[in-house]
Amino acid sequence: MSNFIFLFAIILLIGFSSNYAYSQEIGLSTFSETAQIMIDNKFSNKITKSITLSSSNTQEILFPNELEQKIRENERITTIILTNQNNCVLGVYDDSCIIINIERNLEDKGITAIQGSSRIIADKYIEEINQVFDTNAKFFQVYIHTSDSANQALDTSGIVSGTGTISAVYTMPMEDTESMYQKISSMLLSKSIREGGGFYDIAKSISKEENSKMTFSLMPENSRTILQLRVSQDEPIPDSSKIEEIMPIIKPLKLFNIEKIKKSDYLSSGNYPLNSIIQVVILSNNEKNISEIEGNVLPSKMIDGIKMPTELNNEGWIFDPQKGDVIQGKYIFGERVEIIDNKLEFILTENELPSSEIQNDNQQLDEMQVEEIIIVIIIAILSIGAAIFYLKGYKK
After folding, report:
1. Is the peptide bond before 220 cis (omega within 30 degrees of 0)?
2. What whole-number distance in Å separates Cα of residue 309 and Cα of residue 369?
3. Could you tell me which of 107, 131, 280, 295 has the fewest CB atoms within 10 Å of its CB?
4. What is the tens place of the pLDDT at every residue in 308-341?
5. C-beta separation of 140 from 146 below 8 A
6. Among 90-104, 105-119, 187-201, which is the least confidently predicted range?
7. What is the Cα 139 distance to its own chain's centre?
8. Closest C-alpha to 331, from 35, 48, 28
9. Would you say 330 and 7 are in contact if contact means Cβ atoms under 8 Å apart?
10. Is the pLDDT of residue 378 over 60?
11. 3-state class of 306 per DSSP?
């Protein structure tokens, strides 16, 4: 089930609850904003902060409709990425990249045939893509992904870097993130989103920081295309350090160097609790637990094997899972416009939590798997550093 259909199912579920009879009708906007902290003590030993602005509406993130349809109608194209991430694929140094990811044709036998047929597809689109991005990327190589370890570890769909994915890579001179973000956001983000503030303003600040990186991506589906603009910055974790020793108290907004976070004014026209999300992902070599949560934890229930919230108008955390070597927490705003830093704090421990510590009305709280789409940069081979989409829960 696609992520938006899943979210509409949640909304319909909540809509029938009498608890919301007097609340503003819950809706789902095509535009969403996500602030993410990834603490990776498993693969890259980095803390990555990022802002992702996403839409399936080409009037919000502006992209030529004719080109979007042509890309979507080619069933072998899975993603198109523009990034200034270092080493976008093996062999690229100090260049920005446009990457066209293509599913392998099983009829192609041998590396030469695979690379040849994939390049033919990518070359059909690169000129128009260059025009949209105001770039002049030239063909570099066709890269064949042979590892699926990242997708297995992160429980992702594998459509970007999994085994069977081919990347046609085009390169151009490296551009600094601030100027690249300014150009792309001015060209492709609608004026109302740029003037709406919210997470967009945080992204603009991150783009000015040292070692920040930008990625624009396009993910075609059957009837629509997901467009995303992401800005991120990495901070190394000292070697051999344990996460809980570095930061026993997780303070997401402190890592963004802000004291409060505000929704975009663009979303003020309706009640869109799932369109502004703060996410924390923790990858560890050892099992960890979340404890002493400062803010709310939203109640939820299991429906068709998926944990869904039973409240959307209240702000709070949804942890899924709450313990293990991969932990994910998502905070939704509910009806609030902004959240202050101490409402997002929690403690990371190695001790197993008693089930009684997190309860609501004598029932243990479950967590929901919100299927928003989030870019996390990791590319196919983990040792060369990053650039693939992390679509938690999303299956093509």
Report:
1. no
2. 9
3. 107
4. 677 788 888 888 888 888 888 889 888 889 999 8
5. no
6. 105-119
7. 27
8. 35
9. no
10. no
11. strand
Six-digit token string for 145: 């992904």
The number of CA neighbours under 13 Å toward the Cβ of 17 is 15
Collapsed DSSP state (helix, strand, coil) of residue 262: strand
CA proximity to 266, closest of 3, 30, 24, 11: 30
Q: CB–CB of 104/165 below 8 Å? A: yes
The DSSP annotation for 291-303 comes to E--SS-B--EEEE
Which residue's structure tokens are 């085009």?
A: 170
Task: Say which amino acid occupies 18.
Answer: S
Beta bridge partners of residue 279, listed in sequence order: 36, 330
- Read off the tokens for 110: 């041998």
The 8-class DSSP code of residue 222 comes to S
- pLDDT for 243 equals 66
pLDDT band at 147 (very low <50, low <70, confident <90, very high): low
Residue 359 neighbours by CB distance under 10 Å: 12
Q: Is 75 left (phi over 0), alpha (psi -120 to 50) or beta?
A: alpha
Residue 9: both structure tokens together: 């199912």
Q: How far apart are CA 77 and CA 103, in angstroms?
A: 6
- Give the H/E segment covering residue 287: strand 276-291
Contact (Cβ atoms closer than 8 angstroms) between residue 278 and residue 339 = yes
Nearest Cα residue to 395 out of 223, 72, 160: 160
| 392 neighbors 154 (Cβ within 8 angstroms) | yes
